[in-house]
Amino acid sequence: MSVSVSTAKLNLILLAAANAANLLLLYAASHAPWWGAAVAAALFALSNNTMFALLHESVHGSFAPDRRLNAWCGRLAAFWFPTGFAVQRMFHLTHHRNNRSPSEQFDTLHDGDVLWLKYAQWYAIFTGLYWPCAVIGVFFYAATPRFVRRRLAALFGRRGGLQSGAEDYIGSLDRLPQLSARLEIFGAAAWQLFWAWLFGWTWGGWMACYAAFGFAWSSLQYTDHAFSPFDCKNGAWNLRVPRWLRAVFLNYHLHLAHHRHPELSWRELPRHAGEGPHFFTVWLSCWRGPRRPEDFPVFKQGRIE
């Protein structure tokens, strides 16, 4: 995979800027009056999504041409989620392999589905609860042996494990280098605790910022796939949003282009993206819940190179 030097330099600048913005906004949210904390939380939802987009670049090896620099910058970006770089890389590449397969059809009702689990997972995504579940999940992995994870996965049952994706994602953890993957997760905790101690972050300020980030991040994670074709590479959307917002998210909304060309950096995606549905059109449709394929809404998708 080839990443230009200019892209790598820009990514480093963005990483430093997002890091500084996150520190400043968490400090402001912890020490400002309520209205200032609300503004800081809203801005943190943007800056930390830029950070997540940079983590996404690192996962695909598109942050920098040097593998070590790519990995270490990915670890720093992961600290802000917080998660471990190796875990995120394994999960995300699993997603690319399984996209729109039966284990990732969260928007689709099938005969035999565990309905309470289907709806619980779906609305956890669109209310932002997906983010704390993801964070708690990686720390649970870091603190427990394999057999505990296996017992937990068994609680879903075979059907529940398939329809929720738990079987694939929990199983993928066994392929990680166990010590280093766990150290990255504990490193993320140490990173957060260090800055909280140094800058006097409060629980209220921290939770306000991460609640705003979690809602924005979680909503996008399936809006860009919801009701799309059941196809690994074509099962996504190029979502229309204001240009400034797409810049903040580093073209993450151009998700169909990314799934078709996962080797490309975020700067190259617009050349491969056609006109897709508006983000809010798909997002609002999602709030009606999962449905059968014949009841899927139809969204227009422009021509893609």
TrEMBL record:
Top-level taxon of origin: Bacteria
Keyword Cytoplasm included in the entry's annotation: no
One Pfam short name: FA_desaturase
Record GO biological process: lipid metabolic process
Membrane-spanning residues: 12-29, 35-55, 76-94, 122-143, 203-220
The keyword Transport appears for this protein: no
UniProt keyword terms in alphabetical order: Membrane, Transmembrane, Transmembrane helix
Residues annotated as domain Fatty acid desaturase: 34-273
InterPro entries in UniProt: FA_desaturase_dom (IPR005804)
Name this polypeptide is given: Fatty acid desaturase
Native organism: Neisseria elongata subsp. glycolytica ATCC 29315
